[in-house]
Automatic annotation (TrEMBL):
GO terms for molecular function: pyridoxal phosphate binding; threonine synthase activity. InterPro entries: Ser/Thr_deHydtase_PyrdxlP-BS, Thr_synth_N, Thr_synth_N_sf, Thr_synthase-like, Threonine_Synthase, TrpB-like_PALP_sf. CDD domains: Thr-synth_2. Its EC number is 4.2.3.1. This is Threonine synthase. It is an enzyme of class 4 (lyase). Residues 3-81 form the Threonine synthase N-terminal domain.
Amino acid sequence: MMKYISTRGNAPELTFEDVLLTGLATDGGLYVPKEVPQFSLAEIESWRDLPYTELAHKVIYPFVEGCVDSDALQTMINEVYGAFGHKAVAPLQQLDNNEYVLELFHGPTLAFKDFALQLLGRLLDYVLERRNEKVVIMGATSGDTGSAAIEGTKACRNVDIFILHPYGKVSEVQRRQMTTVVGDNIFNIAIKGNFDQAQDMVKASFGDQSFLRGERKLVAVNSINWARIMSQIVYYFYSSLNLGGPLRPMAYSVPTGNFGDIFAGYMAKKMGLPIEQLIIATNSNDVLHRLMSQNLYEVHPLQHTITPSMDIAVSSNFERLLFDLYDRDGAALADLMAKMNKRTESVEVSEDKLGKARALFDSFAVSEDLTVQTMQEVYKETGYLLDPHTAIGVKAARECRRNPRIPMITLGTAHPVKFEDAVLRAGFDMPKLPHHLSDLMTREERLEVLPADLATVQEFIATNTFKD
Ligand SMILES: Cc1ncc(COP(=O)(O)O)c(C=O)c1O
Ligand SMILES: N[C@@H](CCOP(=O)(O)O)C(=O)O
């Protein structure tokens, strides 16, 4: 059975089931698999003709084995991805010779988050029914995680879900996708602050859950929850196999905020998939690009951009990569994270450790003007409208590509219909919302606006959790 350990080395080892029901480890770290499942090239190659659903089972099962029955997992996967709006689930769109976009926006909320959060909802139901437990989900969103989490768990009988988003700083479609979902167990909190403050409140609440009076546990839907990363690994395998992998390597460019999606690519490589290059593509909230290029970790004030989902200054999952760069030395990492989490001074990572990251990762930061220009450029070349986050990925791919003979795949993380400001600024008409969302703009909204104050937010959660 797979065991999970904390990146800071001072928390109990857990099974998948407990990791699913946990946010942060008790030492403040993030859980990662103790041993990474390995697949040989021959085994990966034998999966070449599998549909997405069967491939997903091959990749995910080793992470859940012993906790989730194999047939039950396949049933959940079939239900989740069978309901996506494209039969291929994650189709590739070709832009140029050896240049592709992997469309990850055919799920119900039109962003890549559906891949993991639809499955996470099913897994929670499965585990909570068996344990006869109720939990409280608390999550922070810069726009996409929130709606995908609500959509993925709205039918779960044993959860109340509280999603914090930064007031006025997500797009209208994103906000409405969260605030118009009807359900007594769904609560949207717009905090008067930014995403980092929301994420900090979520992490602080995981650290001290006494506001829930010991009666309920908190569960995470952000990518601090390993179940998120696990499901996102699958599409790296799927896209590679569709383009001749694993017999030829691939390169990926990943629009990055919390470093979850690109960490999933790094995991795919560790599991045996030949990946030659991973590109960290950021907007002007570019802490990771500055770290990679200048070896200086310095948190700057958060900027509000036309790519709101990537408006993140403190990138949670980078800790999982640092854990590997520090040879899985939890104590060393705990020291480093203590410095980084102060956020008031710059921190240097040892050149030797960063050198290991630079062998695989490149990075590029894309301004708003360049984002818009890339949307225009790609449309002119191909007639294909990119969402602005994906445009950041495409621009970074074009700037950082190491070898044009290797297919370069940019993760298409969202549908452009979610981002009116960017689409209009680039001079395009807004695409139509898909049928299931066609009345989104007239549905009734429900949300609570609160100050960015931990005690107030926790009081709101406790009151609404125990109201009956
Ligand atoms: C559309 C979109 N693109 C990119 C990202 C960045 O992904 P990650 O936070 O996993 O780096 C997000 C949010 O996380 C997103 O919603
Ligand atoms: N971009 C995300 C922010 C949260 O990131 P997560 O992947 O850790 O959930 C969003 O759109 O909410």
